[in-house]
Amino acid sequence: MLYLLLYGWYMWYNVDMYIRTIQRKNKDGSVVRYIQLAHNQWDPQARCAKAKVLFNFGREEEVDREALKRLVKSINRFLGPGETLRYEAETGAAPLKFITSRPLGGAWVLDRLWEELGIKGVLETLLKKRQYKTPVERAIFAMAANRALDPMSKRGVEEWVKEDAVIPGVEEIPLQQLYRAMDFLLENEAELQKQVYYSVANLLNLEVDILYFDTTSTYFEIEDEDEDGGLRRRGHSKDHRPDLPQAVIGLAVTRDGIPVRCWVWPGNTADISVVEQVKKDLIGWKLGRVITVLDRGFNSEDNLRCLQRAGGHYIAGEKLRSGKENTVQALKRGGRYQTVRDNLEVKEIVVGNGEARERYILVRNPEEAARDKARREKIIKELEEQLPHIKTHAKAVCELMAHPVYGRYLKLDSRSLPKIDRAKIREEEKLDGKYLLRTSDDTLSAEDVALGYKQLLLVEDAFRTLKSRLELRPVYHRLEDRIRSHVLLCWLALLLIRIAENRTGQTWCSLRATLQRMQLGEFSGTAGQVRQRTETTPAQKQIFKALAVKEPPLLFSINPTAKKNA
C-alpha cells in the first residue's frame, strides 16, 4: 500500500523524491530525528526551491526499517537494477559508487545442494564431538565449491573466498583454518563417506544393487618418490607420466553415475590387489544385493572369488585374446544374437558343468564392428605400402614386428622378412565390434549384463571430470594426509556436480557458465552500503527450477550510514 501511495505521488508531482532526516532539540537538550519523504518544489515568490514533505515516517528510532527494505526491493523489482542505477547516474540524485562484483549463482546452487543432500548436517553432527571455534563446515564447503567453480591451491582459496566468491555464511577463511578443516575431514573419512551415502541414497532413492568400480592414477610434480611405503610412488601411470610419482585413486559409482565412495592407494598398487579392500569397506552399508562391475584389469580368479564372498556377485570383462581355455570355447560357440537396446546384440554362452560352470555373454555392436573393419583395412593398406621397401633383416624389421598395431597382422617369411598374415586377419574379423563378459549372477538377463557393463563408462566419465573440470591433478600437497583430504574434497565436489547434471540434463561446464553470470554487486553511497544481485535470467530460472533450488534474495544487505549527533 505504501508503495502504491509513493508511486502515485511520483506520477502526480512528476518530480524527484528523496528521503531526508530532520532533527529537533528538546528542552532537556536531547535531539530527536525524524524521517520524511520529500521533494523540492519551486517557490516563485522566494525565487528558490523549497522542500515539501510528502510523507512522515516518524521518529528515526521507531521507523520500520524492514518495511523500508521491502519498499526498496519492490521499487527495484519494478524498475530493474540497471534502470535504477542508470537513472541515479544520469540525474545525480543519489550517486552510488560501484565497489565490487562477485559471481554468486554457482556457489549458491552448490550450497543449497550441499544442505539438501545432508552433507552439511553430517559434518555438523561430527563436529559436535569437537570444540572448534572456527567455521570448519563452511571451510570444507568452500574448498569443495572451489574445485567445482574455479580450482586452485588452498592458498588461492583463501583469497578466492575473500575477494572473488560469495560463500553463504562466511566472508573470509584464513589458510590455517582451511588446513585444519582438511585434517578434520580426513580424521572422519570413513564415517563421513558412510553417512553422506546414507543421506544421499535416502533422499534420491538411489538404485544401489549395482556398483561400478575402477581406478585411475594422478601424478605429483616431484622427482623422488616417498620412502618407507609412502603414498607417492612410481607405478603403472594411466596419465602417461611414468616419470613422476603418483597415487592410485579408486571410485565406486551407482548406475546413475553418483559417486558413493572413493579410495586412495600408493602409486605402485596393482589394480587386482584393491578389490578385497573395496569389498570390505562396503560391508555394512546396507546395499542389499551388490553386483560389482569390473573392467578387464580386475578379473583375476582371486578377485572374482573375493567378490562372491558374503553373497556378492560380479560382471567382469574378459580379454578376447587372453588365450584362456574357457574364453576360447565361449568365442567358438555358435548361436543366434538377440538384439537389445543401445545398438547391442547379445548371445548367452555357458561353458562347463557343475561347480566349473561359467556364464558368459558375448556382446556385439554392429556400428563398432564397422569401425573396427575400417581401421583394420587402413592399417593393412599402410603395411602393403611399407613392406616392399624393407629388403633386409635390419632394425626396421624388428621395430615393425614389435609394433603394437602393425605387428598384430605380420609374420616372418622364409627369408625372415615381414609379410601380412592373412590367417590372422580372418581371425581378427571374427572379433570385430565384440566384447566378452562373465557374470556370477544367473538372475540377470543377458541384456542387463550387457547394459550394466556398458555403464562402466560412467566411472571413466567421473575420472575425466575429476582430472579436467575439478583439476585433481597435478597434486601439489606434500603431506600424505593432505593428499588424501584433497581427494575427498574432489569427491564431494564431484558428488554435487553429478547431482546437478542428472537433474538438469546439462553438463557442469554449461551450468557453471550460466550460473556464474549471476553477480552480487556492492554499492556505496552517502546513505550507506547495499549488496544486490543481478536479475535472474530465463536460463538461470530454468536451472533453479530443475534443481528445486530457491533463487537467492535480490537484496542481500542494506547497511545505512550512522548519523552523527548535531
UniProtKB/TrEMBL annotation:
InterPro entries: IS1634_transpos (IPR047654), RNaseH-like_sf (IPR012337), Transposase_11 (IPR002559)
Domain Transposase IS4-like as annotated: residue spans: 254-496
Transmembrane segments: none
GO BP: DNA transposition
Domain of life where this protein originates: Bacteria
GO molecular function, one term: DNA binding
Database matches in PANTHER family: PTHR34614, TRANSPOSASE IS4-LIKE DOMAIN-CONTAINING PROTEIN
Protein name: Transposase
Organism annotation: Thermacetogenium phaeum (strain ATCC BAA-254 / DSM 26808 / PB)
